[in-house]
Amino acid sequence: RQGIDFLLKPDFSKITGTTVLEALGQSFFSMSLGMGCMITYGSYLRKNENMFRIGAMVSLSDITVAVLSGLAIFPAVFSFGISPTSGPELVFLTLPNVFARMSGGYVISVVFFVLLFLAAITSSVSLLEVIIAYLSEEMRITRSKAIVCTACTVAATGSLSALSMMPGSVLTIGGKNLFDLCDSLSSNLMMPLGGLFIVLFAGWVLSPRKLRDEMTSGLKYGTRVFPVIRFLIRFVIPVVIGILFASRIGLLF
Description:
Shape: globular
Structural class: mainly alpha
Strand order of the largest sheet: 1-2
Number of strands: 2
């Protein structure tokens, strides 16, 4: 009961501008926005696909999985009197303690971390595709070479980031270990800036006709709602992302 209340019962007294901006930042990360992933995969869709329906399905699926995960995790965390911390600490410290106290927890923990591994790998594949598509299409490198070079680079940097989290590690820059530094740079700088540049390009550089044809699949879907979407892309979303970015770098709140 306490875990469900923690997840679903909001405490409006704790909702501030910082909270809203943190939620926006989480949405960037959760839905792979601002990093070219959606653009790359969107380019593989057929021209007659309903982009508005696909976007709604992606958003709904993301929210559904997040809520179901919370319903599975937080009741178990609270039932054993463990603090519901967030991020890597929840996954790698709190949840193992929960599994250790459960009947059959060893099997459950194995299944959980296997599924977590699969989720991480599939997410990595989607992100690697952005770099691989760029190298193969723009740099004229064969796809196999692009895959090998990208995978080796990510494996090397990822290993260093993992090693930097070990006690006494010297892999630190500016007082932060490499993992925290990469997480901070990607979440606080790169993704908001990437999202800002994308909407600015779509709203102010790309011609209205091309934007309309791409979003409406050649005037097949969403022609009535397109003017509203274009207005949001041009005037509203850049302001919101700008506020988010200013907050992330410490200029606001």
